[in-house]
Amino acid sequence: MTLLKNIPHPITILFIVILLAAAATWLVPAGAYAKLVYEQEGAFALVRQGERVALPFKESTLDSLGMPAGLESFAQGETGKTLSVPGSFHRLPQNAQGLLAVVKAPLRGFQQTVEIILFLLLIGGFMSVFYATGALERGLQALATRMQGREGWLIIVLTFLFSFGGASFGMAEEGLAFYPILVPLFLAAGYDLLVPVAVIFGGAQLGLLSSFSNPFSTIIASNAAGVLWTDGMYTRLFLLFITSLLYIWYVARYASAVKKAPERSLVLRHDGAISSPFLAVVSPPEGGRALSGRCVGLLVLFVATFLTMVAGVIFFGWWLVEMSAVFLVASVLVGLIMQMNEKEFLAQFIKGAEGMVVVAFIIGTARGVGILLEDGNISDSLVYYPAQWISAMPPGLFIVGLLVFYMVLTFFIPSTSGIAVVTMPIMGSLATVAEVPGREIVNAYLFGMGIAGFVIPTGLALPSLSLVNVSLKTWWKFIGPVLPFLFVLCSLFLLAGVYLN
Question: Is residue 336 situated within a structural domain?
Answer without folding.
Answer: no
